[in-house]
Amino acid sequence: MSANPFETDLDRNAANYQPLTPLAHLARAAYVYPDHTAIIHGDMRMDYRTFYNRSRQLASSLADRGIGKGDTVSVMLSNTPAMLEAHHGVPMTGAVLHSFNTRLDAAVIAFQLDHAETKILIVDREFSAVMAEALAIADVDPLVIDYDDPEFGVDTPFSKGDRIGTENYEAFLTAGDPDFEWTWPADEWDSISLNYTSGTTGNPKGVVYHHRGASLMGYSNVVAAGMGRFPVYLWTLPMFHCNGWCFPWTLGVVAGTHVCLRWVRAKAMYDAIADHGVTHLCGAPIVMSTLLNAPEDDKRDFDQTVSFNTAAAPPPERVLEQMADAGFEVVHLYGLTETYGPAVVNEWHREWDKLDKPVRTGLKARQGVRYNALEDLVVLDPDTMEPVPGDGETIGEVMFRGNIVMKGYLKNPKASAEAFAGGWFHSGDLGVMHPDGYIQLKDRSKDIIISGGENISSIEVEDALYKHAAVQAAAVVAKPDDKWGETPCAFIELKPGQTADAEELISHCRSLLAHFKCPRHVVFQEIPKTSTGKIQKFVLREAAKAL
């Protein structure tokens, strides 16, 4: 048999193959648009030439301290220029960037420091107290660098903590070489970042990303968010969360401008949108609520339509209408830490705008279809690993396959093997496949309520509650019941100035749902949320048990 001519003398070489890396996005933007504004932070403006040079300076200084491939550099930073520089400067050395959730307690921080084997730690002084406590109980002894944010300000409920490091970030960075020849990854499978899951049961798991996935997310984010050249992006999403859904690397693709936002406050958001011409932002529904419910004195008029990417439960139709009236176009995304953030988008067909409102609402409630960089998205029976019927009713587990799925969990082969069983990443989310190939979540596997042998989707009950005009936030969990096993229990936050009682809300749900699906108990309280705006249902489940 003759050799395949297309596989003969056509070998991969340095001229025709280079590993993908998101670091190339910044390098190109600095080469093509060196004078374009890359970062805005308060009164500070930084162009792409400076952004690229400072990232190389940081890499140079880290390399001078022995940082290289296989090392971990941890940061506890707000959405500041230093965080953007870390996203580039750390991997420029071949090292891995580990970003801390800034709301963590000392014990969890200490666990992550040790598990990640942190060599160098950069800490914003707002978080120095809890970090000092964590370092005191951690086994590792990293070089600690203090970051002083010049825009911290004095008119704030927060205060700077003591210096806990031996060096200052600005001095450390500027000692480096702006012409440093940074390290292109030898293999695009090389690790670029480490992100820990929330760890609501046991210790958190360390999710590892590679250069290939982060690079491809840059292109996919541009497409999913509808970004043209020179977008202006407001940092309402924490950069520590899935590396800010990879947007720190994405904006270099289209030479976008990062508008840093240290604290998510309504007035600051409206000022940034109006003053800087913000075109895009990302966030949980709580950010939408903050914008919509802001005092009139905090709001500003603006001419542009702002694309708002959200990746939690689908916003109710009423909220979407309010956002549109306020100048925002909501793009619904879905993903997990293990998929580099969003990997599914509700691709909207313009002809759907002409459909009746109930039909439109149903379409908007769906999570959607795979990202361009994701190779496959399915709903499978987790026991048989066979696809469920595409009937929009049969529930299975949502599973992913592709280049924007994590490498695995750091030092946890058992958890990695379980997550990748059968050649698919198991999300733990339960959903259905619609006839047109769009998926829709029904619940997390642990959040399904089984009452009298019937499965009840907490998302379905929450959606009904959100249709009540007085409800600002709703969360439904299982409450143990001697007769039924479990029954739905609703936790409710009412809008300011609105009133409603339990009987009214239960009656409202009964007008929309089968009676067995309706809450038996309604609790009015502030709903606990994570730093990224996700409702902490594990806290509510414990509260429901105690009722």
Automatic annotation (TrEMBL):
The protein's name in its UniProt record: 3-methylmercaptopropionyl-CoA ligase
NCBIfam families, A to Z: PRK08162.1 (NF006020)
SUPFAM superfamilies the record matches: Acetyl-CoA synthetase-like
Domain AMP-dependent synthetase/ligase: 27-410
Phylogenetic lineage: Bacteria, Pseudomonadati, Pseudomonadota, Alphaproteobacteria, Hyphomicrobiales
Domain AMP-binding enzyme C-terminal: 460-534
The UniProt record lists the keyword Metal-binding: yes
PANTHER family, sorted: ACYL-ACTIVATING ENZYME, BUTANOATE--COA LIGASE AAE1-RELATED
Pfam family, one: AMP-binding_C
InterPro entries associated with the record: AMP-bd_C, AMP-bd_C_sf, AMP-binding_CS, AMP-dep_synth/lig_dom, ANL_N_sf
Family classification: Belongs to the ATP-dependent AMP-binding enzyme family.
Gene3D superfamilies for the chain: 3.30.300.30, N-terminal domain of ligase-like (3.40.50.12780)
GO molecular function: ligase activity; metal ion binding
GO annotation terms (biological process): fatty acid metabolic process
Enzyme Commission number, as recorded: 6.2.1.44
CDD domains xref list: ttLC_FACS_AEE21_like
Enzyme class: ligase
Catalytic activity: 3-(methylsulfanyl)propanoate + ATP + CoA = 3-(methylsulfanyl)propanoyl-CoA + AMP + diphosphate
Protein keywords: Fatty acid metabolism, Ligase, Lipid metabolism, Metal-binding
